[in-house]
Write a structure and sequence with these properties.
heterodimer, A: mainly alpha, two-stranded antiparallel ribbon, 8 helices, 71% helix, 2% strand, globular, B: alpha+beta, eight-stranded antiparallel beta sheet, two-stranded parallel sheet, 10 strands
Chain lengths: 204, 299
């Protein structure tokens, strides 16, 4: 069952129609807990992009050999291997980037989005399609995290990317994980509303 | 039945393959990673002492590594220190837990190899003979300027809110804190992760040994002027003299906790407290033994 979307459509699909955070509602843990600043969101997004693309391609490569009853342990094994590899390579060759991103990389093993995407897409599609779908998902995740991070950082700390924009801290509450739940829910509602309005104007 | 065998076989193959990939990557990247960690450590050490690329350390500044080991012989435990001697060789001094000198053995190890844990263990084991087990404890670096002790650098590790926090502490010759640097941690970004920020780390600067022994964490907000002084390097709002006077004012205060990260703040404070107290106690014993036994160390 091959997908009939072009590569660009796959990428845009990951960012808009099937955005991991706001549509598929997967990987809520980082979306709620780690999206406290824009930089955090960006760093984690890049890391997830790498792991998603690499894992998708690996599973697409081996999809005929994986026994269906042990596919989940196999996915977890692949993800864990890639996370470890990326962690070691970063620590060895990009120490400055590793100093910033190191904590996030280790967390990726438990994210639902990657396992789910492997199950829903990579185990059925070609390597080429899986590659672009992985990129789309990673970018969608990154944009979602950055959007959340923007709102939470601005309202919680008064800064964007560390630069003091407001000069005061409106509501420190936004930095706590509890606010993550509120923000994700409200933003999901907001984006759904935009889509309804968009579809309505398109039909009219 | 056949299904189960296929499953077991394929899962085993997958695990072995994953292990192989990780092993290969580990072997090819481990050296570079260790090198990076080492360079970072050196940079941190120099910056804690006040030197940087714009202000390099003068030639008469020397760093002497002292390695502490636990020596076990049957049921007895003793403390062993691997020290550099004045003439460039190394000696292993054993002191029992009551503070009395036990033995001194010369250790044959070239100066470049002493940085590697494996080489050290082999050389020490060969020197002290069979029947004794040694276990590495920690490392201290004694910094001398022109032969006089000016600072101590203590790399240390203590439990944090999540797992461990690796820190590097710099003390001057009277055990007053010159600076604290967090080398590694796994605290939450944005909450406990703020322990790496200047407005937390710099609070430790200038605290004397007496203050450290009673150091606690208070949950009142950081006073504005103190915050400005702590972040003066980043924002450049205050002159050096003002910063110094404000820091002098708050020198004997307790540590102001991080918002939303009381436990991480307490972990760091207690960790630093333990490091300094234990170090001061052990150094006193070591110094006494060195003087009694007339061991010629370059510090």
């Amino acid at each position: 069952m091959a997908t009939d979307k072009t590569n660009l459509q796959l990428v845009i699909n990951g960012i808009l129609n099937e955005n991991p955070i706001f549509r598929l509602v997967l990987s809520m843990c980082p979306a709620v807990g780690i999206s406290t600043t824009v930089m955090n969101g960006f760093m984690l997004g890049i890391a997830v992009l790498f792991v998603q693309v690499c894992s998708s391609c690996t599973i697409a490569l081996f999809k005929n050999v994986i026994h269906p009853r042990i596919r989940i342990p196999t996915y977890t094994l692949t993800i864990a291997t890639w996370v470890t590899v990326i962690d070691m390579v970063l620590a060895a060759y990009l120490p400055e980037a590793y100093a910033k991103m190191g904590i996030f990389i280790k967390l990726i093993v438990a994210f639902a989005i990657i396992t789910m995407r492997l199950e829903m897409f990579a185990s059925k599609e070609s390597i080429n399609a899986s590659f672009w779908d992985g990129i789309g998902m990673g970018l969608g995740f990154m944009f979602g995290m950055m959007a959340l991070g923007l709102v939470r950082e601005l309202l919680g700390m008064g800064t964007i990317l560390g630069y003091d924009v407001l000069g005061f801290k409106p509501l420190l509450f936004f930095v706590l994980p509890l606010a993550g739940f509120f923000c994700v829910g409200l933003m999901m509602a907001f984006f759904n509303y935009i889509e309804i309005v968009y579809k309505r104007t398109k039909r009219a | 039945m056949k299904d189960i065998l296929t499953i077991i076989f394929r899962l085993t193959v997958a695990c072995l393959l994953a292990g192989l990939v990780m092993g290969v990557v580990f072997i090819s990247t481990n050296k570079a990673k260790k090198h990076n960690v080492h360079i970072n450590e050196k940079k941190v050490m120099f910056s804690l002492l006040g030197y940087s690329s714009k202000n390099p350390a003068p030639d008469n500044v020397a760093m002497h590594e002292v390695y502490r080991y636990l020596v076990g012989e049957d049921e007895d435990l003793a403390m062993g220190y691997l020290l550099p001697l004045q003439d460039g060789s190394f000696s292993f001094v054993t002191i029992n837990l009551a503070g009395a000198f036990v033995a001194q053995t010369a250790v044959a190890i070239p100066a470049e190899k002493v940085f590697e844990a494996g080489e050290r263990t082999l050389a020490i084991a060969a020197a002290i003979g069979a029947g004794k087990t040694i276990r590495y404890a920690d490392q201290t670096i004694v910094v001398t300027t022109g032969g006089q002790r000016t600072a101590y650098l203590l790399p240390g590790r203590f439990p944090g809110f999540k797992t461990f926090i690796g820190a590097m502490l710099a003390l001057d010759q009277h055990f007053t804190i010159l600076g604290l640097e967090i080398m590694e941690h796994e605290e939450d970004p944005g909450l406990g992760g703020e322990i790496v920020q200047a407005y937390f780390k710099k609070q430790f600067k200038g605290k004397s040994l007496e203050t450290i022994k009673k150091l606690e964490v208070v949950k009142t907000p950081l006073p504005d002027e103190y915050l400005k002084a702590l972040e003066a390097d980043k924002f450049g709002t205050l002159g050096a003299a003002e910063v110094a006077s404000i820091q002098e004012q708050y020198k004997d205060n307790d540590i102001y906790a991080l918002t939303g990260a009381t436990i991480s703040s307490r972990s760091v404070t207690n960790g630093v407290k333990a490091m300094v107290k234990k170090f001061a106690y052990r150094l006193e014993i070591l110094d006494r033994v060195l003087v009694e036994q007339h061991i010629a160390v370059p510090f």
